[in-house]
Amino acid sequence: xxxxxxxxxxxxxLIAETHVPDAEHAGGFPPFDATTFESQIVWLVxxxxxxxxxxxxxxxxxxxxxxxxxxxxxxxxxxxxxxxxRQTDEAIEAYEKALAEARAKAHExxxxxxxxxxxxxERQRQAIEARLAEKxxxxxxxxxxxxxxxxxxxxxxxxxxxxxxxxxLLGEADPAAAERAVDTELK
Amino acid sequence: xxxxxxxxxxxxxxxxxxxxxVQPLIPLNIGGLDASFxxxxxxxxxxxxxxxxxxxxxMGKGSMVPGRMQSVVESFYTFIANMVRDNAGxxxxxxxxxxxxxxxxxFFANMIGMFPYxxxxxxxxxxxxxxxxxxxxxxxxTGFILHGxxxxxxxxxxxxxVALLPLVVAIEIISYFSRPISHSVRLFANMLAGHxxxxxxxxxxxxFMTMGVVGWAGMILPLFMIVCLTALEFLVAALQAYVxxxxxxxxxxxxxxxxx
Lengths: 187, 260
Description:
The structure holds 2 protein chains of 2 kinds. By secondary structure, chain A is mostly helical. Chain A has one domain (8-186). Chain A has 4 helices and no strands. Chain B is mainly α. In chain B, a hairpin with a 2-residue loop joins β2 (29-30) and β3 (33-34). At the A-B interface, α1, α2 and α3 of A face α1, β3, β4, α2 and α3 of B.
């Protein structure tokens, strides 16, 4: 503020001379001093017009361009990001679909294999059982035949024995009577 | 200065009005028109150069990712662009260069005026009145060009009882024509009063300084006041530029949409 006071130096001589601080301002109050209006208006109009043309022709369009470019760039980048996100989503969807398909297919194959094996086992089991049953019945038949054969041998042996015994006892043989007697006994 | 005051016998050591005196530096007279290059003219030119330097050099190369200075310029631009858009509507953006110039001019003039030795261009009623008058004439012309006679609706607020209408219209007309006066006096008076106050307190400091040791203690209070007032004046400088511009936007809004 001392510095500002020093700034008043040129005026101070006047004040010192007149001893009235305001005497140097003809109109008393400088902002209402009409003698300065004309030059102030002239220079205000000149400087403001210069400023207006500088701003409207040079400075502002340049700032606007920079701001617009940046806004476009940001919008572009956001668009691109959105597009990438969409692509990612699509890829994820496709992957999940493929995964589900694969899983279903695997399940199907497993089921099929299980069914096939089951079926084959069943078939083999049945074949073996059939073969076994056949063998059993064959064996049974053989047993029956052997039994029959044995029984018929028993009769002829019995007839022979009876015939021989009769021959030994009576000296004469009657095979027919012996056969009858054996048959009667065997019944 | 102080010596002069002492000689004058207890007069005020600092003339608080001296800072507003317009002194011709280069007397000029073009065709009867006084175009003297004065200290006021000089600081107007300084203001224009400062705004131009700020908006042009500040933008640098205009890079996609702004640096500090470029960010400041861009914020300044968007601040005013949003002010115009919010207060006067999107269709007022064609007047944006004018409103930007207006705000930048007043803001820089006010701020430059805060420097010691500098002259505050906006502390002269003739300057603020020419600016406010330009706005007034421009706004009125815009209203009539865009809306013709319908622009007169601006004087007839909707929803007023017919009986009251003559009175209301009279009041509206008076208030409309007093706009340039209040518009210009507000800025002028704020700048003037603030700068006078700073000088008055500076004067107190000088007065105390001449009173010896006691005075040295006494000058602390006005000195402290100067510090506070300086901060306040920076606020006023920015605020009055803002108020002047936002009022311009509102007047422009009336001209563009006269139906309220």
